[in-house]
Design brief:
By secondary structure, this protein is of the alpha/beta class. Helix content is about 30%, strand content about 20%. The strands form six sheets. It has a six-stranded mixed sheet with strand order 12-5-4-13-14-17, with helices on both faces. It has a three-stranded antiparallel sheet with strand order 1-2-3, with helices on one face. Strands 6-11 form a two-stranded antiparallel ribbon. InterPro entries: Tad_N, vWFA_dom_sf.
Length: about 625
């Protein structure tokens, strides 16, 4: 009997089952708690992302800091699902507290209190039941409307005074109205961005034959104030300013530069390098005197400068003309040189044509080329016998400097900033030729974070878009003197402008700058307007590639260009190729491709096209 009892195994199954159930129940408890933990974690993340997007929209709509934080908390807690709000902590970091602005950060901490884990711990470990808490955190970062830096690069050439196609208004008036409309559209949005510093900035770059950087920059570190640039003496022969020609005010060469010598220089110039700025300072006119009956000066003659530098600069030699390379005296060709239009010959040719830029009295003999570069004439204060006014913009030494000065990036989220930009647009004046590459290059430089203009945000800053809007109503133009009814007795092969003369007197290069960096498709001996256009268009194409490679968004507008005109059709194609791809729109003719940021505008459509540009820029600033 006793042996039968010890041999009986039937009760072991129940005992084994009970013993086995302990770890099984613990595992099930852990599994249930883990599943619930995952669910609560996901619901917290979902609530966090939803609250971030919703709060960002509130900020965009103009909510105050306190209201934005309160809204974020309410929205977050309302979307937690099975998660108890009491078990969460929300931290909101508004955009104005982040470096660079524009980013809203929401962080949540969750304390999960398991249902079964304490009992499982007791069953498995034998300890007393206790409350076990699992902690985790989550983060959601919302880019709150990109900051924008927009450069308006606008054609100010003489053709802008013509009537716009399909309109009874002048193109220039239509352009000014449309550009100001764009500023208003974007500044209205910017006003709501209280948490972001300088959310939208505009610069304005009027261009014609040249670009005006502003005479206030005369002494800027990036201006060539010491004559190091290879362009400084390109059309001037300082060797003619000798003690024999001008005993008290002459030049002596040392190294590559000429230095002021003689008793007529003042202490600021004596023994210093002579530059183009020196000519502006020392070239005189009669400002007042005692006159005879014929208004000729007889005594008490007072002299004053004949002109002051208007602010226009020459185009740097290739490749720096189509780059944003910083100016440095260690690389002289990167420095910016003030424009100075040489006084051309007094002589007329066999067709009775005068020189294009004959604004001073020659005081030399010899060939017309020699007379053009002869320096003593600029330092002979006794020239003339009558009181004469000073030369202004686009005349005298400032010939081809016809535009108003660049307006650097300006915050239009303030009424004062928006007014500044719109006033600058109103002040633009149309005159001169068309040099789109020069305008676009300076537009890029205004967006840059480095000199000459430093108002741009760092190129590495996330959430900021730099945009070039380039508008022109014609092909690039550079003129031969004869095409404008003037003579070219000096053999310069062009009128003077930002690229200097096509055939300069004293160049450091094989040929004029207009041909530097061009392909074999551009003849270096074809001195015609058409060939000049071809050369400039090649520069423009390379410049477009350079800007886009630097993450500049390029928008282009062809205004009233005629596709039946060969040069204008080529310009339209070049402008379209230059433009960037839209991030938001597809090409209506081929939906597999993005739309190009190019507008083929007429006077009648310009306003609507600028509204479309404004919408495109607004899309760059959506919450993402």
């Amino acid at each position: 009997m006793i042996r039968d009892f010890f041999r009986d195994r039937r009760g072991n199954y129940a005992l084994m089952t009970v013993i086995t159930m302990i770890p099984l129940m613990g595992a099930v408890a852990i599994a249930v708690d883990y599943t619930e933990l995952v669910r609560q974690k996901q619901e917290t993340l979902n609530a966090l992302d939803a609250a971030g997007l919703a709060t960002a929209q509130q900020i965009v709509a103009g909510a105050s800091d306190a209201d934005a934080k309160a809204f974020a908390k309410t929205f977050f807690e309302a979307n937690l699902g099975h998660v108890l709000p009491a078990n969460t902590t929300l931290t909101v970091t508004l955009p104005n507290n982040n470096a660079g602005g524009g980013t809203l950060v929401l962080e949540a901490a969750l304390k999960y209190q398991p249902y079964f884990l304490p009992a499982a711990v007791m069953l498995l470990g034998g300890g007393a039941p206790a409350q076990t808490t699992v902690n985790f955190s989550a983060r959601s970062e919302i880019r709150l409307k990109n900051t924008l830096e927009v450069s308006l690069v606008l054609d100010n050439s003489g053709s802008m005074t013509e009537l716009g196609h399909g309109s009874n208004q002048v193109r220039f008036d239509l352009l000014k109205s449309a550009a100001k409309q764009l500023v208003d559209q974007l500044s209205g949005q910017a006003l709501l961005m209280k948490q972001v510093s300088k959310p939208v900035q505009f610069s304005l770059v009027p261009f014609a034959a040249s670009v005006n950087v502003g005479p206030a920059n005369k002494d800027a570190a990036w201006m060539d104030t010491t004559g190091v640039s290879p362009l400084d003496q390109e059309n001037l022969d300082w060797s003619t300013l000798t003690s024999a020609n001008s005993p008290n005010q002459y030049a002596v060469k040392s190294g590559n530069n000429y230095y002021a010598k003689g008793s007529s220089w003042d202490a600021t110039q004596l023994n210093q390098v002579l530059t183009r700025f020196s000519i502006y300072k020392w070239m005189k006119r009669i400002s007042s005197c005692t006159k005879d009956r014929n208004n000729n000066c007889t005594s008490n003659i007072v002299y004053a400068p004949i002109a002051s530098w208007g602010g226009c600069v020459e185009s740097r030699p290739y490749p720096y003309n189509i780059q944003d390379t910083a100016a440095s005296t260690s690389t002289p060709a990167t420095m910016f040189v003030p424009m100075f239009a040489p006084d051309e010959t007094d002589n007329t040719d066999s067709y009775s044509r005068s020189a294009y830029s004959n604004w001073h009295l020659d005081v030399s003999s010899g060939t017309d080329a020699a007379r053009q570069r002869y320096m003593p004439k600029y330092f002979n204060a006794g020239i003339g016998t009558k009181v004469t006014p000073a030369y202004g913009m686009n005349e005298g030494p400032n010939t081809s400097c016809s535009t108003t000065a660049i307006t650097p990036l300006t915050d239009v989220s303030t009424s004062a900033g928006a007014t500044t930009v719109k006033s600058a647009i109103d002040a633009m004046a149309a005159s001169g030729a068309t040099n789109v590459p020069e305008g676009m290059a300076w537009g890029w430089r205004t967006l840059s974070s480095t000199a000459p203009f430093t108002e741009g945000r760092p190129e590495s800053e996330k959430g900021n878009d730099k945009v070039l809007i380039v508008l022109t109503d014609g092909a690039n133009t550079y003129y031969t003197p004869t095409s404008l009814g003037a003579n070219d007795l000096a053999g310069a092969k062009s009128t003077y402008s930002a690229l200097g003369y096509v055939n300069p007197y004293n160049t450091a290069y094989s040929y004029g700058r207009i041909f530097l960096g061009t392909s074999s498709n551009v003849s270096k001996t074809d001195y015609s307007n058409a060939n000049y256009t071809k050369a400039m268009s090649e520069h423009f194409a390379t410049l477009c590639d350079n800007a886009k490679a630097a993450n500049i968004i390029v928008m282009t507008i062809a205004l009233d260009l005629d596709s039946s005109n060969t040069a204008e059709a080529a310009q339209m194609a070049a402008l379209k190729t230059c433009s960037s791809d839209s991030r938001f729109r597809r090409d209506p003719t081929d939906p597999s491709k993005p739309a190009k940021l190019f507008w083929n505008s007429t006077g009648a459509t310009l306003s609507d096209d600028f509204k479309a540009i404004g919408n495109e820029l607004s899309n760059l600033r959506i919450v993402s």
